[in-house]
């Protein structure tokens, strides 16, 4: 072969390869949230100012400091969230460290759950959504949009620790199952393992009333993922918010630690399964922040609680640049997050009613 032609052919193959590498198409999409986990703990670990209040220690201060404390914030946060501060920091990106200039905020003016989840999942703010009891969401969500596309059709599922997700995602209109952790839908009960978890849920104490404990959401979603191989999955956890409202700082931290371990389980599976490895984009975030300046307000959030619009997000997987912990000035709003996933996935999700 003529050297010139060989060179041109090599160049063409090289360029084609490059174009393909940048085009993430038909990737699996997983979105995971934990309710009201503060950026302060994500980036700084145990908040020693909160720990000074006896009322929040629940008689467990020595153990808590042993478990998750450190002589530096880096040491503490890594003990609290080991997956965040190893794999996610090395291979993904973590936004929202306000001390480094990375600002992530609610765009909605309410700073509580339904408005926050609606903002994440529909990629826009609807100020009419001003109550957790709000009717089924009139706005189209990203997963509903995915379920209209051939690759994702009937391969979409959501697991909610909270029954409100049936309204937030407007299950009836959206056309994909939204599993309420406290009452597993009969369509999943044919599976023996899922039936067993559903029995445990039915027969155990429900400390958070309407909300299922995270442990059940964890195993329901993991079993489902491994067996049914959905192309898009949303999973919502709630222990962090419940235990913060209860003013139980040690248990709030343990819930954050368990959430981190769940992320590791998902990531490990994704990286060991040929259907998901290298083809899965994961977004991780929270619906709202919590108080900070007035230290007793860490338990709470909402319009009257300063700083509770301050959130964080992380991404890892296919199409996600490994930026690590973002240490440059930026302002990102919650409503932009799902559009980032859409863009990475070469999709064209438009927020609309
Ligand atoms: Zn709350």
What do these coordinates show?
- The protein is α/β, with parallel strands linked by helices.
- It is 42% helix and 13% strand.
- Strands 5-4-6-1-7-9-2-10 form an eight-stranded mixed sheet, sandwiched between helices. It has a three-stranded mixed sheet with strand order 8-3-11, with no helix packed on it.
- Helix 12 (192-203) packs antiparallel against helix 13 (214-228).
- The longest helix is centred in the last third of the chain and has 24 residues, at 249-272.
- The N and C termini lie far apart (59 Å).
- Residues 36, 241, 245, 301 line the site of zinc ion (ZN).
Index terms:
353 residues, alpha/beta, 8-stranded mixed beta sheet, 3-stranded mixed beta sheet, 11 strands, globular, binds zinc ion
The parts where pLDDT drops under 50 for at least 5 residues are 12-22
The average pLDDT value, as a whole number, equals: 92
Number of helices: 16
Helix residue percentage: 40-55%
Largest sheet, in brief, is: 8 strands, mixed
The distinct bound ligands, ions and cofactors come out as: zinc ion
Anisotropy-based shape: globular
* Oligomer classification: single chain
Radius of gyration: 21 Å
Count of individual beta strands: 11
How do the SSEs run, as a string of H and E? HEHHHHHHEEHHEHHEHHEHHEEEEEH
Distance between the termini: 59 Å
Structural class: alpha/beta
Beta-strand proportion: 5-15%
Strand order of the largest sheet: 5-4-6-1-7-9-2-10
């Amino acid at each position: 072969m003529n050297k010139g032609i060989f060179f041109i052919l090599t160049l063409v193959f090289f360029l084609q390869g490059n174009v393909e590498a940048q085009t993430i198409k038909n990737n699996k999409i997983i979105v995971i949230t934990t309710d009201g986990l503060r950026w302060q703990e994500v980036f700084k670990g145990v908040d020693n100012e909160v720990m000074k209040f006896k009322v929040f220690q629940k008689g467990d201060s020595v153990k808590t400091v042993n478990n998750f404390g450190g002589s530096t914030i880096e040491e503490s946060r890594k003990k609290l969230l080991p997956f965040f501060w190893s794999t996610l920091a090395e291979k993904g990106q973590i936004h929202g460290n306000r001390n480094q200039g990375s600002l992530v905020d609610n765009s909605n003016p309410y700073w509580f759950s339904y408005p926050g989840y609606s903002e994440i999942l529909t990629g826009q703010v609807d100020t009419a959504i001003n109550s957790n009891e709000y009717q089924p969401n009139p706005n189209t969500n990203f997963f509903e949009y995915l379920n209209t596309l051939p690759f994702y059709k009937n391969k979409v599922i959501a697991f909610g620790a909270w029954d409100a997700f049936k309204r937030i995602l407007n299950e009836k209109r959206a056309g994909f199952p939204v599993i309420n952790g406290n009452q597993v839908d009969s369509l999943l009960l044919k599976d023996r393992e899922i039936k067993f978890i559903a029995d445990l849920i039915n027969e155990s104490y429900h400390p958070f009333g309407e909300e299922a404990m995270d442990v059940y959401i964890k195993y329901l979603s993991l079993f489902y993922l491994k067996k049914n191989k959905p192309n898009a999955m949303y999973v919502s956890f709630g222990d962090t918010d419940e235990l913060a409202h209860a003013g139980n700082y040690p248990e709030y931290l343990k819930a954050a630690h368990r959430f981190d371990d769940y992320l590791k389980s998902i990531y490990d599976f994704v990286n060991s399964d040929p259907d998901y490895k290298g083809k899965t984009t994961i977004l991780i975030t929270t619906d709202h922040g919590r108080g900070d300046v007035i230290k007793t307000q860490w338990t709470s959030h909402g319009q009257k609680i300063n700083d509770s619009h301050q959130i964080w997000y992380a991404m890892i997987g296919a199409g996600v640049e490994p930026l690590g912990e973002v240490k440059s000035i930026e302002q990102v709003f919650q409503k932009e997050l799902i559009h980032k996933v859409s863009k990475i996935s070469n999709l064209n999700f438009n927020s609309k009613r």
